[in-house]
Design brief:
Oligomer: single chain
Shape: elongated
Helix content: 10-25%
Strand content: 35-45%
Largest sheet: 6 strands, antiparallel
Radius of gyration: 22 Å
Structural class: alpha+beta
Mean pLDDT: 86
Length: 181
C-alpha cells in the first residue's frame, strides 16, 4: 500500500512538472505591454481636504484582441491569461487659473467594466510634485476587466488645499499582458 502511494505521488509530481514545461513551451508569445495614454481635462473643485472627489469615468476602450493579434496573429482574446497594470502616471499639461498637480494630495485609480465591480488598481499618497504624480500599482490580476473593450478608469482625488480650477492632465499607463495557448 505504501509503495502504491509513493508511486502515485511520484506520478502526480511528474504530471504537474510536465504540464508546467508544456505550458512554458507553448508560451510562444512572451508577455508584452499595452500602453494607454489620454489627455483629460478635469473640473477641479475642492471645498474639503479630508474627503475624496470622484471624476467621471475615463473610457479606455482598449481592444486587447487587436493588440494580441498585432503581436501574433495565431493568438486572440481567447488566449488571454493575465492582465496587470504595470505603470501609471499623471502629467500636468495646463490649467485655467494656474493650479498645478501639487493641489492633489492623494489619489486613487479604479478600473471598471460591464458586469464587474469597480476595483482599486493604483494609489498615490502625499503628493507634493506640481508636474507629475506617479502611482503605485496594486499588482492585482484584472483579466476580467479586459475581456471586453468597454473598460474605463475612475480617479478619486483628495485635495491638499481648498481650490477651484480646471486642470488638463496627460495620463500615461501600461498594462502587462500574458497570452498562452
Amino acid at each position: 500500500m505504501k509503495k502504491l502511494l509513493l508511486i502515485t505521488g511520484i506520478f502526480m509530481l511528474l504530471l504537474t512538472s510536465c504540464r508546467d514545461i508544456v505550458n512554458n513551451v507553448l508560451d510562444a508569445l512572451p508577455p508584452f505591454n499595452v500602453p494607454f495614454s489620454t489627455t483629460l481635462t478635469v473640473p477641479f473643485a475642492s471645498v474639503s481636504t479630508t474627503t475624496y472627489t470622484r471624476t467621471p469615468e475615463i473610457p479606455m476602450n482598449i481592444n486587447l484582441d487587436a493588440e494580441i493579434k498585432a503581436n501574433n496573429p495565431n493568438f486572440s482574446i481567447n488566449n488571454l491569461k493575465s492582465v496587470k497594470l504595470s505603470t501609471l502616471s499623471l502629467d500636468y499639461v495646463n490649467s485655467e487659473l494656474g493650479t498645478k498637480l501639487d493641489v492633489i494630495k492623494n489619489a486613487r485609480i479604479y478600473v471598471k467594466a460591464p458586469n464587474q465591480a469597480e476595483r482599486l488598481i493604483a494609489t498615490a499618497y502625499s503628493n507634493t510634485n506640481p508636474n507629475t504624480i506617479t502611482f503605485t500599482t496594486t499588482d492585482d490580476e484584472i483579466l476580467d476587466y479586459f475581456k471586453t473593450s468597454q473598460n474605463s478608469l475612475i480617479i478619486e482625488i483628495q485635495a491638499s488645499e481648498v481650490t477651484a480650477d480646471q486642470i488638463t492632465m496627460k495620463m500615461n499607463s501600461s498594462f502587462k499582458i500574458k497570452v498562452q495557448l
